[in-house]
């Protein structure tokens, strides 16, 4: 059986992945970037310890690995032998339909980010404290607090990038659709550069303290 765990909500998907690993005894764990056909062949051939079922866990196989003949061979081998083991993939981003299609019988678990988090991030502007706090608490009902903090840091970094003489040094900003970039610049214009830098510093201090 193959399980594909993916989605933008990395905290939720990661927690689910770890919970799945702990339900299976003695899993064989691999990093997708270095996984070889020999690795999966050996894992299946070795059988489960003391007769236990075989579990193979692979992280970031599609997310961080470049296409290659060996990658195709691994996919084909696992698809052909999925009945012999529990094969669990964890990806830190959304898989494409083509990637999911490699495993016709796979169980797919997608973890999406709720719209509430983006509404909260869009509300970041002075003076909008009451609305920001209200949306923050609403977001806490659907998202992990550490994930919210990570997204908050990301938003401030993006605002700083579009505010800094238009240099756009962050790849994520460079790849944005024009309307998204325009929306971000409009939000950034509501802040002074000093206030954004101070916010970034405060978030750094919170992260360091944690």
Q: What order do the helices and strands follow?
A: EHEHEHEHEHHHHHH
Helix content: 40-55%
- Secondary-structure class: alpha/beta
Main β-sheet: number of strands, strand sense, barrel status?
Answer: 5 strands, parallel
Strand order, biggest sheet?
2-3-4-1-5
- Shape from CA axes? elongated
| Count of DSSP-assigned helices | 10
Number of DSSP strands?
5
Radius of gyration: 21 Å
Termini separation comes to 39 Å
Q: Give the low-confidence spans.
A: none
| Mean pLDDT score | 89
Percent strand equals 5-15%
Description:
The protein is α/β, with parallel strands linked by helices and 210 residues long. The protein has helices at residues 10-23, 37-46, 69-80, 97-100, 115-122, 129-140, 145-163, 171-174, 178-188, 193-209, and strands spanning 2-6, 28-31, 55-59, 86-90, 107-110.
